[in-house]
């Protein structure tokens, strides 16, 4: 059984100040995609709220999804503030060529069996980490990089929690 009383859902490191060096439309677009693209914090928040509701028969797991959704909401806010300070509009949309695509709940998958739920959330967390690491390699603003690094710390904690749930609950069901 998972020990949720001692579980941490976010890194203990403080979040850095949100203060990019200057406005940059390209970086603003990337941060906006982190808010409202297919692989985004909004997608994570909505997925975890849904998962919290449908895993009600697993109290610990439902609670974990609730707590992680709160951390993801904080990330959503950070990316919104970065977007705004970089000169962008913090709407829940992303840019694809000349088109703007608004965030949609259609970005989510809606598995209902616990093993499929956990594989889906694990995949999405790993994809977010990979995306943020690609951005860190391309961005030349230390403040944005520091914010991305700090968010990745939280996402890595979520990966470990989800892997623990898979070991504890899903391996037994197979």
Which CATH C-level class is it? Mainly Alpha
The CATH architecture can be named as Up-down Bundle
Estimate the mean pLDDT confidence: 96
User: CATH homologous superfamily, by name?
Assistant: Ferritin, core subunit, four-helix bundle
Biggest pleated sheet: 2 strands, antiparallel
Protein name: Bacterioferritin
Domain Rubrerythrin diiron-binding: 41-165
InterPro entries: Ferritin-like (IPR012347), Ferritin-like_SF (IPR009078), Rr_diiron-bd_dom (IPR003251)
GO molecular function: metal ion binding; oxidoreductase activity
What is the topology?
Elements: H1 25-36, H2 41-54, H3 59-85, E1 93-96, E2 99-102, H4 114-138, H5 142-173
Antiparallel strand pairs: 1-2
Helix pairs in contact: 1-3, 2-3, 2-4, 3-5, 4-5
Features:
two-stranded antiparallel ribbon, 2 strands, 63% helix, Ferritin, mainly alpha
């Amino acid at each position: 059984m998972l020990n949720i009383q001692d579980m941490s859902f976010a890194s203990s490191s403080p979040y850095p100040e949100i203060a990019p060096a200057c406005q940059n439309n390209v970086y603003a677009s990337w941060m906006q995609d982190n808010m409202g693209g297919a692989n985004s914090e909004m997608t994570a928040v909505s997925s975890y709220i849904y998962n919290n509701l449908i895993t009600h028969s697993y109290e610990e797991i439902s609670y974990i999804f609730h707590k992680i959704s709160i951390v993801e909401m904080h990330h959503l806010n950070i990316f919104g503030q970065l977007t705004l300070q970089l000169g962008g509009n913090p709407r829940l949309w992303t840019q694809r060529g000349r088109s703007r695509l608004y965030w949609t709940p259609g970005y989510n998958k809606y598995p209902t069996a616990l093993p499929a739920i956990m594989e889906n959330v694990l995949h999405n967390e790993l994809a977010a980490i990979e995306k943020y690491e690609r951005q860190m390699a391309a961005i030349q603003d230390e403040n944005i990089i520091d914010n991305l690094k700090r968010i990745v710390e939280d996402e890595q904690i979520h990966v470990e929690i989800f892997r623990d749930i898979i070991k504890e609950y899903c391996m037994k069901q197979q």
